[in-house]
Amino acid sequence: LKAKARPPSTLEIEVVQRAAVAALAYGDDRMAVAGDGTILEGTLTKGLPLVPVGVTPGGRTLAEPEALSMVALLAAAPAELRERITDVDIGARGLIANVIDGPRLFFGPPFELPAKWAAATRVLSDAAARGAEYLDLRVPERPAAGGLEPTNPLPTL
User: Fold this and answer.
1) CB-CB contact of 1 with 16 (8 Å)
2) What is the DSSP string of 71-89?
3) Which of 10, 29, 55, 103 is a good FRET partner for 64, with 20 to 30 A between their CA atoms?
4) At a CB cut-off of 8 Å and minimum separation 6, what does 3 contact?
5) How far apart are CA 65 and CA 73, in angstroms?
6) Which candidate, 113, 102, 107, 127, places its Cα nearest to that of 78?
7) pTM of the predicted model as reported, rounded to 2 decimal places
């Protein structure tokens, strides 16, 4: 809350709401975090995607750059997709999100995240991509689904 008094009879109150987008995970410890990196003390973490951190954050904001990138990825996700993410990580293909009963999502560097999520939404809703082991979203204009069985095998000679 932010309050600003304007005497003699006015009080302006601004409410800033921060919703949890992830649970920071350090061992068995969990802390809810908002999309801007604000630690939300006392907020339940059940059902939130996990973001691994190297140390338990001290203070009110997350400072670890890699963890901030992972939180930004989740903050940019459409709510209905974020609910299906179990955890995120950073690997050789950049940011990675793991989907419940779905493919791994490779996002690459933390740029163009809304466009990458839009591409993920398009591909995940396409029947031709069902059964994919992963989606490569590093180039959002050309997403790729991988690990699929061929639909038209070549004829045997």
Assistant:
1) yes
2) HHHHHHS-HHHHTTEEEEE
3) 103
4) 11, 12, 13, 14
5) 12
6) 113
7) 0.84
